[in-house]
């Protein structure tokens, strides 16, 4: 889903709403009650944020999953969300969205570092942290982004292709931008 409306970007630029979107992507459809339990939030608070996400078209109801009229299930209409900051030049919501995203990435990274020593050995040995300085053109940086996104999509599809293998949730992120050492 290509986000081109700043109101949609603003709707997803909230830490809890980003987390709800992540959970619905990783675990599939859920009710507000299930999401509230997983996040430690009140059901009413989660319901409010789901309504905001729904108003922005970021989640939709899944009535086919409901057992009765009172039960409301929610799902993401699209697996991937992306936006180009160039679509929001001069709009302060861009910086907010990027800041929320970066804060989430750093929080998850710090969480892993704090639990790494007690994690099973195979997970301690499998994790990675990689960075590199390169000299690239803007077109080469765009190509690197496309190739990384394709690799992320390829590995993300493995769970759907073979659900018999036990998998753990894994967070992977990458950023590339112009900078000086």
UniProtKB/TrEMBL annotation:
SMART domains, per database record: HTH_ARSR
Domain HTH arsR-type stretches: 7-98
Keyword DNA-binding: yes
Pfam families per the UniProt record, alphabetical: HTH_20 (PF12840)
Organism superkingdom: Bacteria
Coiled-coil boundaries: none
KW NAD (keyword) present: no
Keywords: DNA-binding, Transcription, Transcription regulation
Name listed for the protein in its UniProt record: ArsR/SmtB family transcription factor
Organism: Amycolatopsis halotolerans
